[in-house]
Amino acid sequence: MAEVRVILTTVPPADADRIVRTLVEERLVACGNVFPAVRSTYVWKGELCCDEEAFVVMETAVDRVSIATARLRMLHPYECPKIVVLDPDAVNDDYARWALANTRP
Predict the structure, then answer these.
(1) How many CB atoms lie within 10 A of CB 28?
(2) In the chain, what are the domain boundaries?
(3) Which of 18, 26, 27, 40 has a CA 20 to 30 Å removed from the CA of 47?
Protein backbone atom coordinates (compact mmCIF):
# COMPACT_ATOMS: atom_id res chain seq x y z
CA MET A 1 0.00 0.00 0.00
CA ALA A 2 2.97 2.35 -0.44
CA GLU A 3 1.07 4.85 -2.58
CA VAL A 4 2.54 7.54 -0.33
CA ARG A 5 5.38 9.81 -1.37
CA VAL A 6 7.63 11.93 0.82
CA ILE A 7 8.39 15.51 -0.19
CA LEU A 8 11.49 17.19 1.22
CA THR A 9 12.30 20.88 1.09
CA THR A 10 14.30 23.53 2.88
CA VAL A 11 12.87 27.00 3.49
CA PRO A 12 13.64 30.10 5.53
CA PRO A 13 12.52 29.32 9.09
CA ALA A 14 9.99 32.17 9.07
CA ASP A 15 8.18 30.62 6.07
CA ALA A 16 8.06 26.96 7.10
CA ASP A 17 4.88 26.89 9.20
CA ARG A 18 2.94 29.00 6.68
CA ILE A 19 3.90 26.75 3.79
CA VAL A 20 3.11 23.50 5.62
CA ARG A 21 -0.16 24.82 6.99
CA THR A 22 -1.29 25.93 3.52
CA LEU A 23 -0.47 22.58 1.93
CA VAL A 24 -2.26 20.66 4.70
CA GLU A 25 -5.31 22.96 4.62
CA GLU A 26 -5.51 22.54 0.84
CA ARG A 27 -5.26 18.74 1.35
CA LEU A 28 -2.20 18.54 -0.89
CA VAL A 29 -0.17 16.90 1.87
CA ALA A 30 -1.40 14.87 4.81
CA CYS A 31 1.26 16.01 7.25
CA GLY A 32 4.29 18.23 7.43
CA ASN A 33 7.12 18.09 9.93
CA VAL A 34 9.28 21.17 10.40
CA PHE A 35 12.80 20.82 11.74
CA PRO A 36 13.42 24.48 12.51
CA ALA A 37 17.20 24.69 12.60
CA VAL A 38 19.44 23.22 9.95
CA ARG A 39 22.49 24.82 8.40
CA SER A 40 22.74 24.52 4.63
CA THR A 41 26.02 25.05 2.80
CA TYR A 42 25.93 25.41 -0.97
CA VAL A 43 27.18 27.44 -3.92
CA TRP A 44 24.68 29.89 -5.40
CA LYS A 45 25.57 32.04 -8.41
CA GLY A 46 29.26 31.38 -7.84
CA GLU A 47 29.22 32.33 -4.15
CA LEU A 48 29.65 29.98 -1.19
CA CYS A 49 26.63 30.35 1.08
CA CYS A 50 25.93 29.03 4.55
CA ASP A 51 22.39 29.72 5.76
CA GLU A 52 20.06 28.77 8.57
CA GLU A 53 17.02 27.03 7.14
CA ALA A 54 14.11 24.88 8.23
CA PHE A 55 13.98 21.33 6.88
CA VAL A 56 10.47 20.18 5.99
CA VAL A 57 9.26 16.61 5.49
CA MET A 58 5.76 16.07 4.10
CA GLU A 59 3.74 13.06 2.99
CA THR A 60 1.23 12.95 0.17
CA ALA A 61 -0.54 10.51 -2.12
CA VAL A 62 1.27 9.48 -5.29
CA ASP A 63 -1.50 11.04 -7.41
CA ARG A 64 -1.15 14.39 -5.57
CA VAL A 65 2.63 14.78 -6.03
CA SER A 66 2.46 16.97 -9.14
CA ILE A 67 -0.09 19.41 -7.76
CA ALA A 68 1.52 19.44 -4.30
CA THR A 69 4.98 20.20 -5.67
CA ALA A 70 3.61 22.83 -8.07
CA ARG A 71 1.83 24.55 -5.17
CA LEU A 72 4.94 24.26 -3.00
CA ARG A 73 6.91 25.96 -5.74
CA MET A 74 4.35 28.81 -5.81
CA LEU A 75 4.51 29.26 -2.02
CA HIS A 76 8.29 28.92 -1.78
CA PRO A 77 10.28 32.17 -1.58
CA TYR A 78 13.43 30.83 -3.27
CA GLU A 79 14.24 31.29 -6.95
CA CYS A 80 15.44 27.68 -7.10
CA PRO A 81 13.83 25.73 -4.24
CA LYS A 82 14.95 22.29 -3.20
CA ILE A 83 11.98 20.00 -3.80
CA VAL A 84 12.82 16.30 -3.60
CA VAL A 85 10.22 13.54 -3.82
CA LEU A 86 11.04 10.14 -2.36
CA ASP A 87 9.30 6.83 -3.01
CA PRO A 88 9.57 4.89 0.26
CA ASP A 89 10.11 1.13 0.18
CA ALA A 90 7.58 0.64 2.95
CA VAL A 91 4.93 2.67 4.75
CA ASN A 92 2.92 1.47 7.74
CA ASP A 93 -0.48 0.46 6.31
CA ASP A 94 -2.49 2.39 8.90
CA TYR A 95 -0.47 5.54 8.30
CA ALA A 96 -0.68 5.13 4.52
CA ARG A 97 -4.48 4.82 4.68
CA TRP A 98 -4.66 7.92 6.88
CA ALA A 99 -2.34 9.91 4.60
CA LEU A 100 -4.26 8.92 1.48
CA ALA A 101 -7.60 9.82 3.09
CA ASN A 102 -6.27 13.22 4.16
CA THR A 103 -5.10 14.18 0.69
CA ARG A 104 -8.49 13.75 -0.95
CA PRO A 105 -10.12 17.02 -2.05
Answers:
(1) 22
(2) 4-101
(3) 18
Q: What is the pLDDT tens value at each position of the chain, 105 positions in all?
A: 569 999 999 999 999 999 999 999 999 999 999 999 999 999 999 999 999 999 999 999 999 999 999 999 999 999 999 999 999 999 999 999 999 999 998
> How far is residue 22's CA from residue 75's CA, in Å, rounded to a whole number?
9
* Distant-in-sequence, close-in-space partners of 3: CB < 8 Å, separation ≥ 6: 61, 62, 63, 96, 100
Q: What single letter denotes the amino acid at residue 43?
A: V
Measured between alpha carbons, how far is 90 from 78 in angstroms, rounded to an integer? 31
Yes or no: is domain 4-101 CATH 3.30.70.1450?
no
DSSP code at position 13: H
Please state, as a whole number, how many other Cβ atoms lie within 10 Å of the Cβ of residue 43: 8
